[in-house]
Amino acid sequence: MANNHYELILIGGGTVSFDGLQAAKQLGVKRILMIEKEKIGGTCLNWG
Fold first, then answer.
1. How many of the other CB atoms lie within 10 Å of CB of 3?
2. Alpha-carbon separation of residue 33 from 12, 21, 47, 48 (angstroms)
3. Cα–Cα distance measured from residue 44 to residue 46, given in angstroms and rounded to the nearest whole number
4. How many helices (H) and strands (E) does the chain have?
5. Region label for 8, one of left (φ > 0), alpha (ψ between -120 and 50) or beta (otherwise)
6. Is 5 exposed, middle or buried (0-12, 13-18, 19+ CB in 10 A)?
7. Please, which residues bridge with residue 11 across strands?
8. Is it the case that residue 1 has pLDDT exceeding 60?
9. 2-47: per-residue pLDDT in tens?
10. CA-based nearest residue to 7, from 36, 15, 20
11. Fewest 10 Å CB contacts: which of 1, 4, 5, 36?
């Protein structure tokens, strides 16, 4: 059985989520889930 417990869940895969990811890593967060329904990178990188 998989362990589906996360310390942080990020919704969206744009640049702001990546900033949050980096901050969480610096704080020692180990189990992070990022949810993105489109392409990772956000609007600016993919469609801007």
1. 6
2. 10, 10, 24, 25
3. 6
4. 2, 2
5. beta
6. exposed
7. 35
8. no
9. 678 999 999 988 888 888 889 999 999 999 998 988 888 777 777 7
10. 20
11. 1
- In angstroms, the CA 15 to CA 43 distance is 9
Number of domains in the chain: 1
pLDDT the model gives residue 2: 65
Six token digits for residue 8: 């942080």
Domain of residue 41, residue span: 1-47
> b/e string for 24-37 if b means 16 or more Cβ within 10 A?
beeeeeeeeebeee
| 35 close to 10: Cβ distance less than 8 angstroms | yes
